[in-house]
Input
Amino acid sequence: MNYSRCLSSRSSDLLVLIAACVILVPIGWIVLAAFKSNVDVFQLKLFFSPTLANFATILDPPYVIHHKLLNSAIVALVVVVVSIPIATLAAYSLSRFKLYGASFMLTAILATQFIPAVTIVLPFFLMFRSIGMLDTLLALILIHTSIVMPYAIWMIKGFIDGIPIETEEAALVDGATRLQVIRNIVLPMAAPGVITASIFSFILSWNEFMFALVLTRRDAITLPVGLALFNAETGVQWHLLAATSLIIMIPMIVLALLIQRHFVQGMTMGAVR
Amino acid sequence: MASIRLENIEKRWGSFTAVQRQSLDVADNEFLVLLGPSGCGKTTTMRMVAGLEQPTAGDIWIGDRRVTHDLPKDRDIAMVFQNYGLYPHMSVADNIGYPLKVRGISRGRREAEIRKAAAKVELTHLLDRRPRELSGGQRQRVALARAIIRTPRAFLMDEPLSNLDAKLRVTMRAELKHLQNELGITTIYVTHDQIEAMTLAHRVAVMNEGVVQQIAPPDQIYDRPANVFVAGFIGSPPMNLIHVKAENDLLVAENARVKMAAAMPAQDLILGVRPEDVSLCAQNEGSMRGSVFASELTGDSVLVTVQVGSQRVLAKQDRSFRIDAGAPVGLRLNENRLHLFDAETKERLP
Amino acid sequence: MPERYLKYILVLPAILIVVLTTGGPLIYSALLTVRQWRLTQSPRPGAFVGFDNFSRAFESPEFLRALGNTVLFIVLTVTLTVVLALTIALLLQRGGPLRRTVQALLILPFAMSPALVGISWRFLLNPEFGLFSVTLGKIIPSLAHVNWLATPELAFASMVAADVWAWTPFMSLILIGGLAALPQETIEAAQIDGASRWRVIKDIVIPQLVPVLSIVVILKTIFAVKAFDLIFMLTQGGPARTTETLSYFSYTTGFSYYDMGYASAAMWVMVLPMLLLTLFYTRYVLKS
Output
């Protein structure tokens, strides 16, 4: 229905535009700042001569952004590769079978994400420290996998729930084993959901901050933590910060736009339907 | 109480025309049924009257007011939806009383009116329930009560009985008819069920592909269908439509020779004859002959399908009639109940 | 392999990962709450001190301030987010190319990660060259060059603003999904019954949205309690620890002051309410 016949069409359009601006302008400003030289940033010019010097600067020490970029990418990639198959199998089982304590399991799995990370970070810090795994990518991969798993399971399960079961039953009658059914029938049909969950997990890992902050020192620093390193004695190097932000943001924005349509269904499942 | 007039109305979505340009009149106090298969435009037409869709051309009048661009709430109409459209978070009483609430009627008066409306549909004992606690038939009656509480100028009903099971549909049909009689409110009723149309309507407008094919009282629709579509749509089991060629005073098809009253010019025709006007006889006696394809017992009659040449003809026989598949038979037609249509235009021959 | 075993085997790896990586640390941190342990003094947890850590917390002005901040932060951000998200969701219902584009944009702030949002807003709020100061200064000259992060009140307001900016679009998406699932007939029936557009929203749409709205409220509350990244980047709990929330307080206590037992206790004050909230959330989601 046309809810906004409360307002005239014009006012409604105006409000929508304002909302769009509020969302876009902060992002756009950072993007612009990334291409400004040091001086221009402080002068807030809208028109300036763009420079790529910032990007060159952050590649050099002490920033070595490409290091951190690599770290973020490796961690996120491995996390996805490890967690998505595990999550898919679990999601399939929870969706298609009656398991004892299934609803409890699902609840508990999701509940883990609602615990403030601070509560868990301490023990992990101590544990990794004692076995000498601080500042390693492996530690981050482990943590991120655990963070990502509940979301992945919920999203993929929600998707599989929506797939009619008849095709699988037909395959079973035809003689396929359950694992064959999963690989040949379910996976192709669930592909959009699995991809959405994968991209979502990638974004989560890429953007993760607190654990990366606590568990890394020098070698395993990821991009978000790298942002925190731009405080020089002379003050924050905003132009470099902006350039780094751009590098962090752009891949995520691309990925997010790809999944935006399937995304909300994954998060709210059932409740909305 | 008002008449409804659709003047040169049209509804297009892009290149698709849901309702072709045409005019339609509903008289005051008339019960008009829009009948047709899904996608024929009947619901769209009614929604335009309701104000839920805007026509792309033409005007709509309710009474003496042009309402074409009025909001639904200003048209003084009431509507019963296919899925009832009840407010799930309100009690039955609040549902029924909502039209009065939004008009600022005081609580005291409202409750009196709610009780009256509920009494008319026999729901007074359910006023405190929520819709989800009610059966389909009960929800239907809540929707009705909500519609009648105000005595609007017109009722619009969008397939209100299609979600009820068959038995309930029969009882509700009678209740609807009674209600309309009692209240005398102009009604537009949309359905794809021809029995509902025949039993409820003062006039039936049969629609197909956005065009009204024929608009007439039910008995006329049944006895004098205007074209092949109407002929085949009305009547259960449907009318037999047999392709024939006119040769002088005979209608000829494979294994069929039907004698007509007068000679006709040579042309391709479609002969329409209802199963109840076809009877079985010995093979050499009737105007058609063939063999029995299938025989079905419906309880109150027996339907025999006969293969006549390459076409099949259905005959309705007495409930005790028995015959085996494959048996050779002849068909006799009631010559007072034959319909002729042009094979090309599908229109009834004058 | 018989199916009754297979189905548990399929879930096993996932459950193991989650339980070990969450349950274990959770229990360990719970155990720490009743011990005295300064990392600077000893590499092992110290003596058992009963509820001393908790009583110390409730007597500490910083802790109490963090607790108050957390509650205020939750109330403000949840209310603002829900109201704004609902407005946006309703505005976008009309459809059309403009609104469809804006709807696609709604996921962008989420893609940005709270840490990034924090630092970006710090940039934008800079009194000298930040976007806000300059544009606001052009409209209302007296507001130019305000240091939005300088006083506790302003810093807190900035925190709230940044958080609302980050989450509202995401919540709008959820509400848009909820609106799409509403039966159209109830809305059309109300229109025919004579309700004005505003009445339809008030009487018909919002009451039917209550389940989805509840999810949004609970989710946003949970995210508000967890909020750390943004605070770290935007205000660093400042000025002078005045904008700390419990998460940040706990972090500082543990990783700046290395007072592990105390930090755990501070955090566990929030855990019980969190668990309750989670129960409510899953009851709503699982109910359907």
